[in-house]
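Quick one, T. Sequence first:
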Amino acid sequence: MADAPVRTVTGATRLAAVIGSPVTHSRSPALANAAFAAAGLDWTFVAFDVPAGGGAAAVAAARTLGIGGLMVTMPLKAEVIEGLDRLTPAAAALGAVNSIAWDGAQLVGDNTDGAGLVASLRHDEGVDLRGRRCVVLGAGAAARSVIWALADAGAAEVVVVNRSVERAEVAAALAGSVGRVGSAADVGEADVLVNATSVGMGSVPGADGPLPCDASAIGPHQVVVDLVYQPLVTPLLAHAEARGARPVDGLGMLVHQAALSLERWTGVAPDLRAMAAAARA
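Structure tokens:
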């Protein structure tokens, strides 16, 4: 097999990074560097382990060093806000930032998680969310970003199903007039069903295992999304496919949310196929 081309880092190379803790497992460096290489951009991407309490200081360091962009993961998504100049509507509504970009001399915080799912469904699956009835399982950070983005994309209804009704009410409010709290009975009525819980993470690919809902309610008219991507075929997706539904794994959301950041940093639309291949590898 031919050796991979060697990328030369010079004094002109732009730097971007992911910050959070832990970050050694992050796929962001592989995704970003594959995109930079495919586009021939003189950028490189690294991971900085920044523990809780260091978010605002990391943003200040990025400002001082002229770092070209940051991805932000746990536990820093809320605390980096203190160091930013302003937020996008998504980040402001969610109170969480996963991407930081320059706008002139200002550092702007965004939340691209939910938008990444919407882009994945539109670009990879051909799913137009306008007028669709969506059911989201869970009310945590990932669920809230998805709920906001589904409503913003024109969903007719965004139903939140969660064990804690109080948390479900807070999450459903992010969808405005199209959001409401639901129950297990809503699963079978969804056009698009999204599992935004961690149920199924780390299970044996495609095997029987824990499910976030009653799989017998799933039917062939549905698109079933699992934000989990380890494994790619979760028990929920295996059941969905067996029942004739269209299964969608979480890797597309991972790729597209990263792509949105990279395009804002560089002004160049990244090669999604190169990013997906890097993520799968």
